[in-house]
Specification:
By secondary structure, the chain is mainly β. It contains 4 helices and 29 strands. Strand 21 and strand 22 form a beta hairpin.
Length: about 550
């Protein structure tokens, strides 16, 4: 398999270590049309009415290549004995009747997209949406305006699920595959379409007041109440496994639409003969079925949680002279997941319950499970030996019966643990089908929601005849936050800051601009976001950092 310690992967090439690469691509096609009629009367009332239609087709493909996947496919499932007594590999084609896994022989840039030695998530969605809407604007007085609006939306989503086929094979004869649990040895087939439809009535009510105040040049005070909506959808398809070989732990195949009732009040002010602008906003958002995504069982699983968000935003721009300007923004944000909401934390499936332990199921199953500690001890303390105990422990997980099934209607064969004198059905006797205990999310913060953010910038301009020379600096800082809803120490993102500098020379008459700038002056690399992968990749964490320091010069000519 690895002569000289080197394995040659068909896509990734030769290496003496584990290599992995992924590719994400999307093919989107959209047709959209909107008609709008808007009045412009001299009286106190005006209106805007309209309708729109959207037809959107999308195919998203996500590939993960790993030379360990290919090695297992070639030398575990497609192995053959060599004349010298060693182990080799053979192509999975029509000449091979026994179960095998098709390995794409092409290099990375020329894959045929039918290989089962790499992970592929194929999502095909057809969305059709239409809406009618209208708003009315009433000038109740010279300083008071009322805006009312309504919208009716109908969304339809047709999703064609294509199950992933990583390390799944089949027999050429069509008989059930007993080693992998797959149905086909090559290519990706479609399951029946999932059809979804939602209807929503949304709208807004806004009151604008422009009083004449002695201490401001211009003032706008406003209050708004609105209701918003975002459609639901389907979670990406999982493996389509033969249940007589492998049964999956349950996961939701769809997620619900998201609704929000939003309340906002604010003021915008101009003072000191236009030299100073002060704006302030307070808001409160009440969400029903807020959509949050995380990686579970190799898919991006969307879950719904009720939540509330409230906060304050302040903005100011001060320009004491035509040359000098200073501006600043400050935001305070508080998010809270509603009481009673829960979700399974893949980093802590037992939630501290000492009567349960976490186990690794059979290799085809991408997630761990929990099982009663007492049953595991019975198996480990039995006289059958460690090899048999490994199989029996795996079978305590829903999805790893291997040579038997938990459903008597599917097979009469016995799961391994039944040789130990007890019966156990993880799909019904373990919390959430064996996936784990729900973590209590009550009062937790939403992901990527720092309690405060602040930005301050300053610039100075020299007017040099036809040219303007501007020097500017911007400093940004945000507080700590979390990248998952569980708000554990593992989820914590530390607070971070960033400084950018720029020099710009501009001739507006000629349309010429020369700009030199430095981004991330400190050259820091704080983690600004992250996500956790599935159990079968060791719950590894993908982190996103601030881009490194960048020096750049830009020349722009406008015609």
């Amino acid at each position: 398999m690895t002569p000289g310690g080197i394995y040659t992967d068909p896509q990734l090439g030769p290496s003496d270590r584990i290599l992995s690469a992924d590719i994400s691509r999307s093919d989107n096609r959209q047709w959209y049309q909107e008609f709008r009629l808007q009045s412009n009367n001299d009286g106190r009332f005006n209106f805007s009415v309209g309708a729109n239609y959207l037809d959107f087709k999308s195919q998203d493909d996500y590939f993960v290549f790993n030379n360990l996947f290919s090695l297992i496919a070639e030398y575990s499932y497609n192995h053959t004995l060599l004349p010298n007594g060693g182990t080799g590999t053979q192509p999975c084609d029509d000449s091979l009747l026994d179960e095998c896994v098709y390995v794409d022989p092409n290099p990375l840039g020329q894959i045929n997209e039918e290989g089962h030695n790499y992970f592929r998530s194929k999502n095909v969605i057809h969305t059709r949406s239409w809406a009618v809407f209208g708003e009315g604007y009433w000038d109740l007085s010279p300083t008071l305006r009322l805006t009312t609006g309504l919208r009716y939306t109908e969304d339809r989503k047709d999703t064609t699920p294509y199950p992933s086929q990583l390390l799944l094979g089949a027999n050429l004869t069509g008989s059930p595959a007993t080693a992998t649990g797959g149905y086909v040895r090559r290519g990706y087939y479609a399951l029946p379409d999932i059809k979804q439809k939602w209807e929503a009535v949304t709208g807004r009510l806004v009151l604008d007041w422009t009083p004449d105040l002695s201490f401001t040049d211009d003032t706008l005070i406003y209050a708004s109440l609105s209701r918003g909506y975002k459609g639901g959808g389907t979670n990406p398809p999982r493996l389509d496994l033969n249940p007589t070989v492998v049964q999956y732990q349950p996961l939701a195949s769809t997620f619900e639409p998201e609704y929000v009732n939003a309340f906002e009040i604010g003021t915008k002010n101009t003072l000191l003969d236009g030299k100073l602008r002060l704006n302030a906003t307070a808001f409160y958002y009440d969400y029903k079925d807020y959509q949050v995504s995380q990686i579970v069982d190799r898919i991006s699983l969307n879950e719904n949680f009720d939540a509330r968000i409230w906060g304050l935003e302040f903005e100011t721009v001060y320009k004491p002279t035509p040359n000098f300007q200073i501006d600043a923004n400050f935001g305070y944000l508080k998010t809270r997941i509603a009481d009673g909401e829960g979700s399974i934390d893949v980093m802590n499936r037992t939630q501290g319950n000492e009567d349960w332990i976490t186990l690794r199921p059979w290799i085809q199953v991408p997630s761990n499970c929990i099982a009663p500690k007492s049953r595991a001890e019975e198996i480990l303390n039995s006289p059958f030996g460690p090899d048999f105990a490994f199989l029996a422990l795996s079978a305590l997980c829903a999805g790893s019966s291997r040579f038997g099934t938990f459903n008597p209607a599917l097979s009469s064969s016995l799961p391994f643990w039944q040789f130990y004198g007890f019966t156990y059905d993880p799909l019904t006797q373990a919390p959430n089908g064996g996936r784990g205990f729900d973590a209590d999310l009550s009062g937790n913060e939403l992901p990527n929601s720092p309690n405060w953010t602040a930005n301050i910038g300053a610039q100075y301009t020299w007017f040099l005849g036809d040219w303007d020379l501007t020097v500017r600096g911007d400093y940004y800082r945000q507080a700590e936050s979390y990248f998952r809803v569980y708000n554990t120490e593992y989820d914590r993102l530390r607070g971070w800051d960033n400084l950018n500098l720029s020099v710009k020379l501009e001739d507006t008459g000629r349309g010429l601009t020369v700009q030199a700038y430095v981004k991330n002056v400190f050259d820091d690399a704080p983690i600004v976001d992250a996500f956790t992968n599935s159990d079968d990749t060791g719950l590894t964490t993908n982190v996103f950092t601030l881009d490194p320091r960048l020096f750049a010069v830009r020349l722009t000519k406008s015609f």
